[in-house]
Design goal:
Layout (H helix, E strand, L loop, with lengths): L2 H14 L6 H15 L6 H13 L14 E4 L6 H16 L7 E4 L11 E2 L9 E3 L5 E3 L4 H9 L16 E5 L3 E6 L7 E3 L14 E3 L3 E2 L3 E4 L2 E3 L4 E2 L2 E2 H8 L9 H7 L11 H19 L4 E2 L1 H17 L8 H4 L23 E3 L2 H9 L19 E3 L9
Parallel strand pairs: 1-2, 7-17, 14-15
Antiparallel strand pairs: 2-13, 3-6, 4-5, 6-7, 8-9, 10-13, 11-12, 11-16
């Protein structure tokens, strides 16, 4: 624990929240707590604002205009794997909000001296499995071939027949229970079938994508306190699905099939068949989410919103770090206002951090540093658990 990082955050919190009280008194209290325990506990208000600041500081996120709207679920008392899984399901249901997606974060127990925090292995709470085919191809999302293989070895059995959009189980690791697998219930798996406003054949491809993008492999770091399990979401920008997830060569690689159906000339790159196919695939994504009344944004609108965010931050006297390679959309980038400018690259705190171990867990399902076993293990349980909807329980 870095006392300087704690003091820095507390100074910022009190400066931006004048009603929070005497900052010197709070800093002195925290310094004493760190001396005594090796760490300290954020107040509920500090945690909530720290999470919002981490979003505001996220250099790779174009959707930061609404950082103050982030709903923070304080779940720091939750450590058991079953309970974490249940609250992840609640997060998906609440963030779904009938299609009006809510920005939300669920913050579980922090890292503390002698007590490792729980981990969520998945990159996002909802991701799709991948299976090698006999012809050398892949059925599903190739990014998660390693992850799928790992969870199968841990006991997961995909439904038959296997498909291109089989939802992977949630994988949670704790010191008490080790690695546990949980299948997400159907009502938490809100998905959108992809169709096209002018091309009926696109529906024949059987494409779909999930509605709520909950990133779950990044640790939230506030004032030196690390929260490795802190899944959070905004809503999708269309190009994330249509120009990356469904189009990238290393992912679903659908542009050749779309081009074939469009009867485009693919004999040369100079025909720009990829560009034409990508536009239609992205039109399909935006059309489908709008038809299903699910929140989504296009890259032109969101680029304009980001410029408004920059202007607001400048008026507030703050810098706004941005990674150009992430902020500029992956299609027609030069036609958006975020393309023609430079950005601050200063790294600000609080922040979301993706460490190497979390990245490996999220794609390969293998930990470089397994959590140490607890000296007081829980009662042994089967590795496979199913979460059932219980409408009588509070959310």
């Amino acid at each position: 624990m870095d006392p300087a990082a704690a003091a820095e955050f507390l100074q910022q919190f009190h400066a931006e929240n004048p009603s929070a009280g005497d900052v010197d008194r709070r800093v002195a209290w925290v310094m004493a707590e760190i001396d005594l325990t090796g760490t300290y506990q954020h107040t509920t208000a500090e945690l909530a604002y720290g999470a919002q600041l981490a979003w505001r500081n996220s250099a790779r996120c174009i959707g930061r205009l609404y950082w103050r709207s982030l709903r923070v679920r304080d779940l720091r008392a939750i450590r058991a794997a079953d309970d974490i899984a249940e609250h992840c399901v609640r997060h998906l249901r609440q963030a779904w909000n009938g299609g009006k997606i809510r920005p939300m974060i669920s913050v579980f127990a922090p890292q503390a001296p002698g007590r490792p925090a729980p981990r969520i292995w998945n990159e996002q709470l909802i991701r799709y499995a991948a299976y090698p085919k006999k012809d050398g191809g892949v059925l599903g999302d190739p990014r998660y071939l390693g992850f799928t293989d790992s969870v199968v070895k841990l006991g997961w059995r995909p439904a038959e027949p296997r498909g291109a959009f089989d939802v992977l189980p949630l994988v949670i690791e704790t010191t008490e229970a080790g690695v546990q697998l949980y299948e997400l219930p159907a009502d938490a798996l809100q998905e959108v079938a992809i169709t096209h406003p002018d091309l009926p054949w696109l529906a024949e491809l059987g494409l779909r994508w999930h509605a709520v993008p909950v990133i779950s492999s990044m640790r939230l770091v506030i004032g030196g306190v690390s929260y490795p399990a802190a899944p959070f979401n905004g809503w999708y920008m269309g190009t994330e699905i249509g120009a990356r997830n469904l189009a990238d060569i290393e992912r679903y690689d659908l542009l050749p099939e779309v081009a074939r159906r469009l009867e485009l000339d693919t004999s040369s790159e100079t025909t720009l068949w990829r560009d034409r196919a990508m536009v239609e695939l992205n039109r399909a994504v935006l059309h489908s989410y709008a038809a299903a009344d699910v929140t989504i944004t296009d890259h032109h609108t969101e680029s304009g919103r980001f410029i408004k965010h920059l202007e607001k931050e400048q008026r507030a006297g703050r810098t706004c770090p941005a990674d150009w390679s992430w902020i500029v959309p992956p299609m027609t980038g030069s036609q958006t206002p975020v393309f023609h400018r430079y950005y601050d690259i200063e790294q600000l705190r609080p922040e979301f951090v993706l460490d190497d171990d979390a990245a490996r867990r999220g794609t390969h399902g293998v930990s470089m540093a397994p959590l140490p076993a607890s000296p007081l293990p829980e009662t042994p349980r089967p590795i496979w658990h199913y979460l059932y909807d219980n409408t009588t329980r509070s959310t």
